C-alpha cells in the first residue's frame, strides 16, 4: 500500500510527531537493551527503527513489502542490515527457526487480514527467551475517528494522513480481540503500554501534544512466547 507514496511517507515519518516523538520512543523503550542481539524488523519501512536499533548495537535483519521503502532503509542503515522485500502475509521461509532475539513490528499488524498467521511465524523465528515488541493503532482512537460501535471488527479504508491522499486498508478491532489473537498465536503479554508523547513534543507540536495527552493514538505491547 505504501509503494505509491513511499518517498513522501519516509520524509513524513522521520519528523512526524506521531512517529518520531510518540511511537518510536515507545517501541524502542519496550525493546530495551539490544546490544549484541539479533533483531528482526518486520515491516521495516524506511528504516527509522532499524537504524536506531543498529546504532544501539543490534544486528538487524528485516523486511518490507515496498521495494522503495526497503531501498531507503538499506541506505539509512549503510547497507549493514539484511533487509529484504517481503510481504508479511507470506511465510518468512528465508528466516531460520529461533534466529532472532527480538522482533519489532511497528504500526503494521493492523494491515494484515490473517494476523494470527503472522504472529505464529514471528514466534517461530524467536530464539528462546526472545520477545516480540509491536505497536498498532489504539482501538479507542479508531472509535473516536470512525464512530459506530467500539466493538466492531472490520477492515476500513481511509487515508493515512488527513492532509494527503495516502489510501490504506486496515482493521479496526476492540482491545479484547487484539489480545485474544496474541494468545491464539501462542504469546503472553509481558507489558502493555499506552504511550504518552515525549516532552519535546509540547514545544514543537503543542496541539498534538495536548491531544495525545487526552486520547491515545497507538498502543504498544511486549509479548513473550507462552510456555509449552
UniProtKB/TrEMBL annotation:
Pfam families, alphabetized? Methyltransf_11 (PF08241)
Which InterPro entries does UniProt cross-reference here? Answer: Methyltransf_11 (IPR013216), SAM-dependent_MTases_sf (IPR029063)
Q: Does the keyword Methyltransferase apply?
A: yes
Which Gene3D superfamilies does the UniProt record give?
Answer: Vaccinia Virus protein VP39
Keyword Transferase recorded: yes
Using the record's annotation, list all stretches that form the Methyltransferase type domain: 41-134
A biological process term (GO) from this entry = methylation
SUPFAM superfamilies, alphabetically?
S-adenosyl-L-methionine-dependent methyltransferases
Q: Which domain of life is it from?
A: Bacteria
Under the GO molecular function aspect, what terms does this record hold?
Answer: methyltransferase activity
Keywords (alphabetical) are: Methyltransferase, Transferase
Q: What is the official name of this protein in its record?
A: Class I SAM-dependent methyltransferase
Q: What lineage, starting at the top, does this entry show?
A: Bacteria, Bacillati, Actinomycetota, Actinomycetes, Streptosporangiales
Amino acid at each position: 500500500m505504501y509503494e505509491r507514496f513511499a518517498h513522501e511517507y519516509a520524509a513524513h515519518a522521520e519528523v512526524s510527531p506521531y512517529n518520531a516523538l510518540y511511537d518510536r520512543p515507545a517501541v524502542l523503550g519496550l525493546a530495551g537493551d539490544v546490544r549484541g542481539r539479533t533483531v528482526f524488523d518486520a515491516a521495516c519501512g524506511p528504516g527509522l527503527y532499524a537504524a536506531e536499533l543498529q546504532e544501539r548495537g543490534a544486528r538487524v535483519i528485516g523486511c518490507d513489502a515496498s521495494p522503495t521503502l526497503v531501498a531507503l532503509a538499506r541506505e539509512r542503515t549503510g547497507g549493514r542490515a539484511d533487509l529484504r522485500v517481503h510481504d508479511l502475509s507470506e511465510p518468512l521461509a528465508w528466516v531460520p527457526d529461533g534466529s532472532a532475539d527480538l522482533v519489532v513490528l511497528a504500526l503494521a499488524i493492523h494491515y494484515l487480514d490473517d494476523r494470527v498467521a503472522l504472529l505464529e511465524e514471528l514466534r517461530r523465528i524467536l530464539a528462546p527467551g526472545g520477545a516480540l515488541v509491536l505497536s498498532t493503532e489504539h482501538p479507542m482512537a479508531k472509535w473516536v475517528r470512525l464512530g459506530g460501535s467500539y466493538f466492531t471488527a472490520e477492515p476500513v479504508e481511509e487515508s493515512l494522513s488527513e492532509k494527503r491522499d495516502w489510501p490504506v486498508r486496515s482493521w479496526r478491532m476492540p482491545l479484547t480481540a487484539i489480545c485474544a489473537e496474541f494468545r491464539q498465536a501462542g504469546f503472553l503479554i509481558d507489558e502493555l503500554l499506552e504511550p504518552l508523547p515525549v516532552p519535546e513534543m509540547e514545544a514543537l507540536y503543542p496541539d498534538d501534544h495536548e491531544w495525545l495527552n487526552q486520547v491515545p493514538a497507538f498502543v504498544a505491547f511486549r509479548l513473550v512466547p507462552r510456555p509449552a
